[in-house]
Amino acid sequence: MGLLTKVARKLVFYTHPYDLTRDTTLLLSFMPPRTEDLYRDILGTSSVAEYSARLAFGVTQINNTNLTIPETYVELGLGQTTKLTTNAEGFTHWSHPAGKPVPADGPLKAVNDTGDQKDISIGSLDVHNSNFLPIICWPRVNNGGTATVKFTPDLHVYAYSGYRETELIRGEVENFLGNWNLSTLLNIPNDNRFHLYEDKNDGQKLKLAKD
């Protein structure tokens, strides 16, 4: 869990008295939502949201007798590099991540130094049991080759109001409030504060401003 805080963010959404004249629900999404698939299926909302991503490189191992070994992986922070090598028994392993983790926009790199082609994947680790979940795979990475990933969690924020519980949202998104690259925000335990308000000079339009 040591690297968890390197890609973890705490978002605080707040209002001042009289900022809002109606109940408002915020939707946080990494992809623009498909309006035909959106349901409001919970009551209430929270003023604090925490996001974390545990990123890792993985590879499928096969020894000299063609016995498949469980997938091995290494967890990295943003801006770090790891090297994949093979020992005398034919098993591959990852080196300890090199480089100091950076707070934002640092690429993750995996270098194949096994002397052979390898299938290298990038994925995430389950927060609860640390199981490796591959997301993208580079097949047959040549010896000396590098798999490079730029992690860009681009968060989109939308607002809804006036919907009933379980009501299907059939129209366009009511109000797009903005998008932020989470990797550029402050790490936990720091707060990233966002002010939600109705702009009285712009027809009571909902707006979200980052402090």
Description of the structure:
It is a single chain. This protein has 211 residues and is mostly beta strands. The protein has 2 domains: 106 residues, no CATH class; 97 residues, no CATH class. The protein is 0% helix and 48% strand. The protein has no helices and 15 strands. A 4-stranded mixed sheet has the order 3-1-14-15, with no helix packed on it. A 4-stranded antiparallel sheet has the order 5-4-9-10, with no helix packed on it.
Provide the spatial order of strands within the biggest beta sheet. Answer: 3-1-14-15
Number of DSSP helical runs = 0
Largest sheet: 4 strands, mixed
Shape: elongated
What is the share of helical residues? under 10%
Name the beta content range: over 45%
The helix-and-strand class reads mainly beta
Low-confidence spans: 1-5, 33-47
How far apart the termini lie comes to: 29 Å
What is the radius of gyration computed over CA atoms, rounded to a whole number of angstroms?
22 Å
Strand/helix succession? EEEEEEEEEEEEEEE
Total number of strands = 15
How many individual domains? Answer: 2
Mean pLDDT: 75
Can I get a quick summary?
The chain has 211 residues and is mainly beta.
Give the secondary structure arrangement, pairings included.
Layout (H helix, E strand, L loop, with lengths): L7 E7 L10 E5 L18 E5 L2 E8 L5 E9 L4 E6 L5 E3 L12 E6 L5 E8 L6 E10 L4 E5 L3 E7 L14 E7 L9 E9 L5 E6 L1
Parallel strand pairs: 1-14, 6-8
Antiparallel strand pairs: 1-3, 2-12, 4-5, 4-9, 6-7, 8-11, 9-10, 12-13, 14-15
